[in-house]
Amino acid sequence: MAESIHFKSVKDYNDFNNNPTLHPLVGIVDLSKAAPRKEHRMHFDLYCVILKKTKCGDLKYGNNTYDYQEGTLVFFAPEQIVETSNVEDVYQPSGMALVFHPDFLFGTSLAKKIHDYGFFSYNTSEALHLSEKEKSMIIEIFSKIEAELHQNIDKHSKTLISSNIELLLGYCTRYYDRQFITRDHINRGILEKFEDLLNDYYSSEKPMKLGLVSVSYCAEQLHLSPNYFGDLIKKETGKTAQEFIQNKVISIGKERIFDLEKSISEVAYDLGFKYPQHFTRLFKQKVGISPNEFRNLN
What we know:
This protein has helices at residues 10-16, 132-149, 157-182, 184-202, 206-210, 215-221, 226-237, 241-257, 264-270, 276-287, 291-297; strands at residues 3-7, 26-30, 40-44, 47-52, 58-61, 64-65, 72-76, 81-85, 95-100, 128-129. By secondary structure, it is of the alpha+beta class. The strands form two sheets. The chain has a five-stranded mixed beta sheet, with helices on one face. The chain has a five-stranded antiparallel beta sheet with strand order 2-9-4-7-10, sandwiched between helices. It comes from Soonwooa buanensis.
């Protein structure tokens, strides 16, 4: 069974990787200093951004496995549990990591934005693959944060470090946008599967049994994290995944309204709405008129 480690503090993570603790709430970790290890399970109470330089087994989050090879960047947020698996032998970690406690963000501009960086919740096949130029930029920002940690802590330290973390996450957002484009053939396949999933869902009894289809349900069926799935659909269609689903529901609703043997309420229930008035409200919002008006006009 894999060893289980709970990282409650930056010091815990530093100690595990044989690195000194220069600041109680933030650190840059040289993973090559860590002792060789095999499978292990990690529970984070911290934010962690890891740049790996070696292949070291499959990294799992939940029941899924990261697309996690040399030169990839992965992100973990507090309360996440991650494990390495399929490690045939003891391996030597290599690379760098930025780790910071949520308390470090208090009083910074990043505190209000940290939840906007959805990639902290990405999982399967969703690591950020870096070009050499992008990797150099990430390492440069890591180095700036590390240099600041070696300075005596003063009133400027927190602002400078948090600004560099925010800069790092901003570049990661840009690089993910690039990755969505360069992996466009994969993304198109996911979009097609998304449409097929919705068609299958609404041609079955699932809406009456399970209710309206959710973004989380679709992401799970497509083996993606909800955040990555939502970001991908937004990039591909210009709409959020929720808007895409709502448009599909209304499109199907328009067809079913012409079945005069069913009332509008029955159509709403068949589509998975718990309350018919919710269907009427969404229909009017999307179409401009009520379902009854639409039926009468057509």
